[in-house]
């Protein structure tokens, strides 16, 4: 009888050990899945943080430009020293600087996600009817030609070109501007 109990105990012990072994395998698989899930979430969070840092850098860069432009607006000698537009009076040069600043703030707002494509186009349509902006746009055509064609700024510039052409053709219907395709999202910055 003792041998039967020992055999039964061994059977139960073997079953318990096997059960614990299966439980351990199942636990290890679940743990690996959870670690993989955590790794995936971490990579996603790092991507979001990288994008936020890129946006913060764009905003900081724009702040530096605005600060320089403000100094140029206050001092005609600084404005003249940095201007690539010839034949302008001091007052007109300041107007061109301000037009550039208005356009730049709209581009920045789009790049950091504050304005969607359609909102950006709406603001640009209004800006396009301003005669100072129209002159600024005409005088800076060569500046835009140096932009990489696949850049967000080049695509926005192409949209403004279309608006300006349509405005010149139909000045009484400036708000009815043809469909301008939305550019593809800006690729993440490297470095």
Can you summarize this structure?
76% of the residues lie in helices and 0% in strands. It is mainly alpha-helical and 191 residues long. It has a domain at 54-173.
Describe the structure.
By secondary structure, the protein is mostly helical. It has a domain at 54-173. The chain has helices spanning 2-74, 76-82, 90-111, 117-128, 131-139, 141-145, 152-169. The termini are far apart.
**Total DSSP E strands:** 0
Q: How is the main sheet built? A: none
Pattern of helices and strands: HHHHHHH
Question: Spans with pLDDT under 50 lasting ≥5 residues?
Answer: none
Measured between the Cα atoms of the first and last residue, the distance is: 78 Å
Which range does the strand content fall in? under 5%
Helix/strand-derived class? mainly alpha
Radius of gyration: 32 Å
Round the mean pLDDT to the nearest integer and report it.
Answer: 82
Percentage of residues in helical conformation: over 70%
Silhouette: elongated
Number of helices: 7
Organism: Streptomyces longisporus
InterPro entries: DUF6082
Protein name: DUF6082 family protein
List the helices and strands and how they pair.
Elements: H1 2-74, H2 76-82, H3 90-111, H4 117-128, H5 131-139, H6 141-145, H7 152-169
Helix pairs in contact: 1-2, 1-3, 3-4, 3-5, 4-7
What are the salient characteristics of this protein?
191 residues, mainly alpha, 76% helix, 0% strand, DUF6082 family protein, DUF6082
């Amino acid at each position: 009888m003792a041998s039967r109990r020992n055999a039964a105990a061994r059977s139960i012990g073997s079953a318990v050990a096997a059960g614990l072994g299966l439980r351990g395998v199942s636990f290890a698989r679940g743990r690996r899945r959870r670690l993989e899930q955590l790794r995936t979430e971490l990579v996603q969070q790092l991507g979001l943080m990288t994008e936020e840092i890129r946006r913060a850098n764009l905003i900081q860069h724009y702040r530096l430009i605005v600060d320089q432009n403000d100094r140029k607006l206050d001092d005609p000698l600084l404005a003249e020293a940095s201007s690539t537009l010839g034949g302008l009076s001091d007052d007109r040069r300041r107007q061109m600087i301000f037009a550039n600043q208005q356009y730049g703030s709209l581009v920045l707002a789009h790049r950091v996600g504050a304005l969607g494509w359609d909102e950006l186009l709406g603001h640009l349509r209004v800006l396009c009817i301003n005669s100072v902006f129209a002159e600024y746009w005409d005088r800076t055509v060569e500046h835009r030609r140096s932009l990489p064609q696949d850049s967000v700024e080049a695509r926005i510039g192409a949209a403004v070109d279309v608006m300006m052409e349509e405005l010149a053709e139909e000045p009484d219907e400036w708000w009815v501007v043809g469909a301008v395709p939305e550019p593809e999202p800006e690729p993440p910055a490297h470095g």
